[in-house]
Write a structure and sequence with these properties.
single chain; 3 helices; elongated; mainly alpha
Length: about 80
């Protein structure tokens, strides 16, 4: 199916620049944008590619009970 749109000069310039930056055609850029704006209803859930795992001063999962007690008592949950 072929669809013709007139994006206007300003939008066409932005589309051209973004397509060049990504190294793709304007057609593929527009198709990708439309697919993201209107996903298929049966599209499966996409998991995040980054998960919040890392090292920190202390793992909150070891302190969650104390944090809940502090919050219930009106404290800020400080250490």
């Amino acid at each position: 199916m072929r669809v013709t749109v007139d994006p206007g000069v300003a939008l066409k310039g932005r589309l051209d620049a973004e397509a060049a930056r990504r190294g793709v055609t304007m057609e593929s850029l527009v198709i990708d944008a439309v697919e993201r704006a209107f996903p298929a209803k049966d599209a499966e859930y996409r998991r995040p590619t980054v998960i919040g795992i890392g090292e920190g001063p202390e793992d909150l999962s070891t302190r969650y009970k104390q944090i809940r007690r502090d919050l219930a008592a009106g404290r800020q949950g400080g250490r």
